[in-house]
Amino acid sequence: MEELSAIIEKIRASEDLDFEDGMHLLESRNLSLIGALADHVRKKTVGDRVMFVTNCHINYSNICTSKCSFCAYFREEGQNGAFTLTIDEILGKAEKASKMGATELHIVGSLNPKLTFEYYEEMLRRLHEEYPEMSLKAFTAVEIAHLAESTGMSVQDVLLNFKKAGLASLPGGGGEILNQETRARVCPHKISGMRWLEVMETAHELGIKSNATMLYGHIETISDIVDHILRIRELQKRTGGFQAFIPLRFHPDNTELQKSGLVRFGATGFDDLKIIAVSRLLLNGYISNIKTYWVMMSEKLAQVALHYGANDIDGTVMEERITHAAGGSTPEYMPKERLIHLIKNAGRIPAERKTNYEVMRVYN
Length: 364
Ligand code: V47
Prior knowledge:
The chain is of the alpha/beta class. Helices cover 45% and strands 14% of the residues.
């Protein structure tokens, strides 16, 4: 307790925690104290409601030039398992999601050099025209930057065109780890951390909100984690455009990182909970939604994370390919009733939200 007393004082005085504080927290083994602090801050900021969304993930292609060493999802053109969905196939998935009551489509894919700007634009336009009730949370900052580069358009123009076609917000993917030295080791062909932040900043300036993710449990150091969260906090101070922060636990199966022997075990449950808690504490006052993504966290740990600073458990998801390609063993679909059960059983109040965090229904 004594080792963290200065941090406890800062939290009590609602002062921002700094880099050194983040390091102390991540170095500490006092998980129950860190969890209790995060839970206290969570209660003060967002209360006892736990958010979830009825959503559907759509992955339009897995043919990717980025070839990140942590990814088991991508394929080369012509390789077994490579796919690209037609717009009609995407609409078919949206139809199914709409019938199941989804209010959000989470659409991400890959850096596929064969796909044209028109493919993306038409996808958004037709989805928005046919299913206006579903919010389109589509394309990571990495996909946006790739399209800007391949078409010669500015990031701003890509985003403006997409907004016009129906894009509502950006998912938080592609953040990985922002420290460039580590990032260049795990995803050398991906845009830099700086560029990822720039695309997010441009989106926020255009009124397009986004999420932010962080991939942990691979080769990153604890200083990379603190640095990542603080850089996101810095941008948030300027734009206020991040709606949620989502730590993602690396799944090693079938990945280059595992084959090369660089990652043997990955993050433990202890790490998972500590990172959720430290995210809450470092982002206090700036990003109020800390999401525990049950698909990567596991159902049971995601539920426990609700007592370690998380206030959002993501959604029904319906179809998930990225984690499952890398050995994820959670189901691909979580019925709404099960999410409600998990939240209530943790002593919290389930609140179904829209993508923009507007609450649609509270399940008391
Ligand atoms: O950017 C890739 C990660 C991300 C692996 O915004 C992996 O609401 C674990 O960003 N093990 C995509 N993770 C998923 C994502 C996301 C998920 C849920 C909600 C939201 C949101 C965003 O998945 C990638 C990368 O960081 N990833 N491979 C892997 N083997």
